[in-house]
Design a protein that fits this description.
mainly beta, 4 helices, 9% helix
Length: 416
């Protein structure tokens, strides 16, 4: 098999580490590490992370390089995984916590790697990069639910992040493990992103964009969006249908968020979509709100409604080395925005030209891996996606068994 395997299902990831000549990715769809060589335009399947099942999804929420090691911080995994670039050896370190970790952020400082888990409870963690010892400190937030921001802000020896509910901004001092809580705006605001422009904080949540001045305690709402701006709404946790709303709306299911991450970059606050149809920029001087246009990233009412709730408008990204790095589920590309006289966009598509080793690994003793139309599936996903059609298509009520039968019968009749 020499055909390319596109990254749409398995290589999308929150855990991406970008360098000038290579990109490291922990696959979202299964337990696998990939390295993309930018100069050769080649993707290499490196191997699997220890102590994990083959088809375990969303193992990691963040990747950070420290010297000759890349640390992969846990989302669904129970471990901090480390890949040594010099020896090619994987290792794992048990965080010893219950439930999903949901770690989407972290930073390195003076021999220690700090990260925040926002699963069923908020825990500030630190791993010593020499001894690999992990320390944990719980942060108590009453009525906490729905996770924390992927973004963090570092100011001096303090790190700031937000909760989706309640609308708390946490200030954590990582040198003495103390913290403060700030209640900003209204209870239902549900902030999901945070960044800092050097003077004030910028937050986004269910009511739109908020400018928060900690010195004056002034809070300013921004709810004027560019022409054509819209959102896809998931009405409830049980709903498999979406609605498109022109303008900004806060009527969606409370666990949802409009923007996935933000960053202060090139004099503007950048907000990347989770349920909106465009990338938004706020000029911190003029306070104007504009769209940042990218080819192949535009969504409209028709394209949004054609997709299932978890596959649209979702950008997985962050700031790395003064660059904006993100993975788009729309274009299936890794894009890197660099600042020169104007923002410059580089783009990459990860593919495996010879996936036999990866398929052999995934198959193992009990799993069956299917390949069709440039995509990898485990058997369950293949039957669901290829035979049942779109998961959100409520008009299709037939069982998988009946669909298999009808498919085989149809193909048999075509050969006659």
């Amino acid at each position: 098999m020499k055909e390319n395997i596109d990254n749409i299902r398995y290589l999308l990831s929150d855990a991406v580490w970008y360098e000038d000549d290579q990109i490291w990715v922990s696959a979202m769809g299964f337990n696998g590490l990939f390295r993309y060589d930018i100069n050769d335009n080649k993707t290499e399947f490196i191997g699997s992370f220890p102590n994990e099942e083959r088809f375990e999804k969303s193992l990691h929420g963040k990747a950070i390089r420290v010297q000759d090691e890349i640390y992969f911080l846990p989302d669904r995994s129970k471990y901090v995984h480390v890949y040594n670039l010099g020896t090619g050896v994987f290792s794992s370190y048990d965080v010893k916590m219950e439930g999903r970790m949901r770690c989407g952020n972290g930073f390195y400082y003076e021999g220690k790697l700090y990260f925040i888990c926002g699963g069923s409870e908020i825990v500030f963690c630190c791993i010593d990069t020499l001894t690999k010892k992990i320390d944990k400190h719980k942060i108590d937030i009453a009525n906490y639910k729905y996770g924390i921001s992927k973004d963090i802000v570092l100011l001096g020896d303090k790190v700031y992040f937000t909760c989706r509910y309640p609308n708390v901004v946490v200030e954590y001092s990582y040198r003495n493990n103390t913290y403060k809580k700030y209640f900003v705006g209204k209870e239902q605001d549900g902030f999901s992103t945070i960044c800092h422009d050097g003077n004030v904080f910028w937050l986004s949540g269910k009511k739109g964009i908020v400018r928060w001045d900690t010195y004056s305690s002034e809070v300013i709402d921004f709810n004027m969006f560019p022409k054509g701006f819209g959102m896809c709404i998931v009405p409830s946790s049980e709903s498999k249908q979406i609605e498109f709303v022109h303008g900004f709306s806060s009527k969606y299911f409370e666990a949802e968020v409009p923007f996935w991450f933000s960053a202060f970059f090139a004099g503007k606050v950048w907000l990347f979509p989770f349920r909106t149809n465009m990338i938004i920029c706020v000029d911190v001087l003029t306070r104007s709100v504009t769209e940042f246009y990218l080819q192949d990233e535009q969504e409209d009412e028709e394209s949004l409604q054609a997709k299932y709730r978890y596959t649209h408008c979702h950008y997985l990204g962050e700031m790395q080395n003064n660059k904006l790095v993100f993975f788009s589920t729309k274009s299936k590309k890794i894009r890197v925005i660099e600042q020169e006289s104007e923002p410059v966009v580089r783009e990459f598509v990860l593919r495996c030209k010879e996936p036999e080793d990866m398929i052999s690994y995934l198959n193992g003793d009990k799993t069956y891996t299917c390949y069709e139309d440039g995509e990898l599936y485990n058997l369950e996903d293949f039957l669901t996606t290829k035979l049942e059609g779109n998961i959100g298509d409520s008009s299709n009520k037939k069982s998988v068994g009946m669909l298999i039968y009808e498919t085989i019968r149809s193909e048999s009749n075509e050969r006659k």
